[in-house]
Amino acid sequence: MLASKLDQIEANQQAIACHLPISQPVTDQAWQDFVLNFVYHSCHVDGNPLTFVETQALLQERATLGGKRLKDYVEAVNLEAACYYIRDLALDSQIVDQNLIKKIHSIVRRDEIAIAGQYKTADNQLISPDILTAEVWETPMRMDQVIQKYHNIKLSQDQSIFEVIAWFHAHLEKIHPFQDGNGHVGRLLINFDLIQNGYLPIIIHDQEASAYYAAIDQANDQDDCQALIDLLMDKQLAAQASFIKRIRN
């Protein structure tokens, strides 16, 4: 199953390459559509009540429809800025380290000065109470260990980028390094890695939240990343299919 999905992903990469160069208006519109949908769904996965129409009005017109809380609008605008930030970093060949991850968080939570870009100062937990996150005192050390192993796995080239990303994402979620905003940062890092490796950014839809969290729990509880790997590859295939349709029209 893994090999067949990887083969299809690479075949789609070749199909996209056959259309190069792709016009700037097409790529710009594709990126803007991605950002809108990523912000809407990532916010919804984390409980933000903004509707798609409200999110669209906010990002495209800076209009606050719907009478929601100010923090709901701010969260969406912050996430939009973080999308552009990780894209620019990825295209600039930046290396993942603790400073980069903290910087992403500082944008995601830039309205909360006390916690923006800072590791947690109180214990927190995942949705699943059976999986223990890192304690405050060990968080920097655990982050350093996971980042080092992530780079070592990438350098070994023994695993596909989707396997590496799934492993890294699950371990970041288990550490849960920030007081809040861990989900957004983790999903942004997924797309940082995909873009940096020449793939399309992906969106975990709010309807897929249960499967997404179950896959993370399986990775951390059973040391089995397969469900998360499958989800990431399925989302890449969906992103590729949509982009191929766009450039053929």
Structure overview:
The chain has helices spanning 2-17, 24-45, 52-61, 70-91, 98-108, 139-156, 161-175, 182-196, 209-222, 226-248. With 249 residues, the protein is mainly alpha-helical. The protein has one domain (1-124, 132-248): Fic-like fold (Orthogonal Bundle). Helix 2 packs across helix 4 and helix 7 (161-175) packs antiparallel against helix 8. The longest helix is centred in the last third of the chain and has 23 residues, at 226-248. The relative contact order is 0.14. The mean pLDDT is 95.
Q: Which helices and strands appear, and what pairs or packs with what?
A:
Elements: H1 2-17, H2 24-45, H3 52-61, H4 70-91, H5 98-108, H6 139-156, H7 161-175, H8 182-196, H9 209-222, H10 226-248
Shape: globular
The proportion of residues in beta strands is: under 5%
- What is the distance, rounded to the nearest whole angstrom, between the alpha carbons of the first and last residues? 31 Å
CATH architecture type? Orthogonal Bundle
Q: Tell me the domain tally.
A: 1
Please outline the major beta sheet: none
Q: How many helical elements?
A: 10
Q: Considering the protein shown, what is the CATH homologous superfamily?
A: Fido-like domain
Give the number of DSSP strands: 0
Order of helices and strands: HHHHHHHHHH
Radius of gyration: 18 Å
Class inferred from helices and paired strands:
mainly alpha
Tell me the name of the CATH class: Mainly Alpha
Helix content: 55-70%
Low-confidence segments, given as residue ranges, are none
CATH topology: Fic-like fold
The average pLDDT value, as a whole number, equals: 95
